[in-house]
Design brief:
About 45% of the residues lie in helices and about 15% in strands. By secondary structure, it is an alpha+beta fold.
């Protein structure tokens, strides 16, 4: 009987270990915050507050938005404003703004990892242009932002690039009431995810 209890306890112990191994840093921080009632220093939520303060101070709500998900903190750059349609070059007048926003992440480069995601709308790229598909365009835009991220001091070993083209659209609730052009501009985005 005691042997059966021991086996049961070991099984439960390994189930708990396996469950904890699959949780992201963001989810672990949410659990810790709900248990302790206090925000951890350098948590994703505290980083979000710092970025949101800078967004408000510079009046950039149309350009940058932030959300904390189970996958981490997402800082979304509106590609419809940052990049010209069908191009992967940051508009010169917005270069300092983008670098300034990315600079807020530099103190966290040693603690967190970063993924730069490129997204496009569903419209195909122009034939004979610089890019053969939306996949190429999304990946190239993500690479351009990755270069700026590395330029502000984030170690290159902590950054990865992901291109999604039009395969991960925004939730319909975020696009409700927008015209077709406004919807497409919102779908064309580059997301810096901190996890």
């Amino acid at each position: 009987m005691s042997y059966a209890d021991l086996i049961t306890n070991l099984l439960l112990f390994f189930v708990v270990l396996l469950t904890a191994a699959n949780l992201s840093k963001g989810r672990m921080q949410q659990i810790a915050r709900s248990l302790s009632g206090a925000e951890m220093p350098q948590s994703l939520e505290s980083i979000r507050k710092e970025i949101d303060e800078r967004i408000a101070a510079q009046n950039l709500k149309e350009l940058v938005s932030t959300t904390v998900t189970n996958d981490g903190l997402e800082m979304s750059l509106n590609s419809g404003l940052v990049f010209d349609s069908g191009k992967a070059v940051i508009r010169p007048e917005l270069e300092p703004v983008v670098v300034s926003m990315l600079k807020t992440l530099e103190p966290y480069g040693g603690k967190y990892s970063f993924a730069v995601e490129g997204h496009t709308d569903a419209n195909p790229v122009a034939a004979g242009g610089a890019f053969s598909s939306n996949w190429d365009l999304a990946a190239e835009r993500a690479i351009v932002v990755r270069e700026r991220l590395e330029g502000v001091g984030i170690p290159r070993t902590r950054i990865r690039v992901e291109g999604y083209a039009d395969t991960k659209p925004l939730p319909e609730a975020e696009l409700k009431g927008l015209s077709v052009e406004q919807r497409n501009a919102r779908l064309r985005r580059v997301v810096v995810r901190i996890y």
